[in-house]
TrEMBL record:
Keywords: 4Fe-4S, Iron, Iron-sulfur, Metal-binding, Oxidoreductase. The lineage of its organism: Bacteria, Bacillati, Actinomycetota, Actinomycetes, Streptosporangiales. Belongs to the complex I 51 kDa subunit family. Pfam families: 2Fe-2S_thioredx, Complex1_51K, NADH_4Fe-4S. Residues 403-451 form the NADH-ubiquinone oxidoreductase 51kDa subunit iron-sulphur binding domain. This is NADP-reducing hydrogenase subunit HndC. It is an enzyme of class 1 (oxidoreductase). The gene is hndC2. The keyword Iron applies. Its EC number is 1.12.1.3. GO terms for molecular function: hydrogen dehydrogenase (NADP+) activity.
Amino acid sequence: MRVCTATACFAAQAGRHLPAVESVLGVTADDRDPDPEVSLRTVRCLGYCYGGPAALDGVTACAGPDVAGQLAGRVRPHAPPIPAADATGDPVVLAGIAGGAEDPWRTWAETVSRRTPELVRAEVASSGLRGRGGAGYPVAAKWAAAGGSPDTVVIANGDEGDPGSYADRLLMEADPARVLAGLALACFACGARHGLVLVRSEYPAALARMREAVARARADGHLGRRPHGGGVDLEIEVVTGAGSYVAGEETALIAELEGGRGCARARPPYPTDRGLWDAPTVVNNVETLAALPWIVSRGGAAYARRGTPGETGTKLVCLSERFARPGCHEVELGTPIRRIVTELGGGLRDGADLEVLQVGGPLGGFLAEEELDLPLTERDLAGHGAALGHAGLVAVDGRIEPLDVLRHVWEFAAAESCGACSPCRVGSRRGLEQVRSGVPPDEAHARMLRLMGEASLCAFGRRLPYAVRSLVRAYGERLRGWAG
Ligand SMILES: Cc1cc2nc3c(=O)[nH]c(=O)nc-3n(C[C@H](O)[C@H](O)[C@H](O)COP(=O)(O)O)c2cc1C
Ligand code: SF4
Ligand code: FES
């Protein structure tokens, strides 16, 4: 059994669900007993952040306040489906889910039979589309960097590790054809004959839906040798991830696909130069790929008119369980965060007050209530020490002590740091020890945060100090001095 202890599930019951589960099952989580009757593991996010606390019993999802009873067999296992809605009037990535959209495979058939890769690249360049997986890199620039070699591999990153985000799970489970057609278009644009979809092992339903969708696409003639009479071959394979937050980082994901540990590697070389088995490799997030059928069929200029001039298009935002109406919404980039929180989310459950809002997962940051008028863009969030990330929004109300939220952030860091570099491996453990000691940090802690931020190998260690500082700032007086 796997029990989620990540941020949205932690915020749901202030972390009390884990001792409750341990108590009803009579086992200790993460026990090293080699032959247990029940094996209970803590995991960080199962994609049920809208209805947690969540757990998986084998592949059966259990979610809700009675999760312990479900795991103990006292209550029938249940987990609500993802509430999803479009707030734009013309959905891009939710087009298939919100209804009335053109079949994404039709766009693929027309493209592969009548258009050129250059044309697809030009439409995507003019759309201004940036990667939705967190780093926000322009998609057309990444494709160009791969150089168009037929050895190129395009990987759909379905690892979605950010606690609080379940957008990729929604897309892979509810509209897998759009994700696959997007991947096919990306392969066509990059000259690649092979595409891979990596789905995290914590998403068994998404894995099954993606596999079924590939089989159907093959049977319908969308894949294989020269589909739709075009001049290219294309094969797509679905692979299961090995389960760790850092394994979603693109170099770690490639290491994992090569059979190694999912640890980040030093760059350069960048994956577009030497990636999977040294082939040029493009890694794109699932939501990024799902935008491609719309962009290719409606044109890059139409997409560029959406969102803001600097950050075009739409974004899926995911609201956590603490909201009165949790769920996944497609919004224009630039939508005021307050509108998302109050109009789409309905404020907090039971009229509770929002204390802090985590935006963009563990590598994003925290905002105070007074900061909610910010537009949802990378630029505006960065100005407040936060980041858009994958746009999970996790609400924390007043039932949780600020120091417990800080401890949770460091626990996540210490548990998920892959250990490949010492600033992050050592720093994340020191940060946790400090907060556990209950003694506010001194200048040495501030130096350690600076070192982590500057010398860590990947964005995990580099971003964590920002997340810590933003939390301390958002709580103001109540956490004063805790960033050192
Ligand atoms: C620690 C860490 C974890 C990451 N996890 C994910 C993930 O789960 N899914 C994802 O798409 N990108 C993740 N990324 C970002 C990827 O490295 C990469 O930028 C992204 O998949 C590229 O796709 P995009 O350009 O379409 O956003 C992560 C990055 C870091 C540093
Ligand atoms: S920063 Fe952390 S997660 Fe990234 S490589 Fe170093 S130890 Fe691993
Ligand atoms: S399911 Fe627990 S944080 Fe996402």
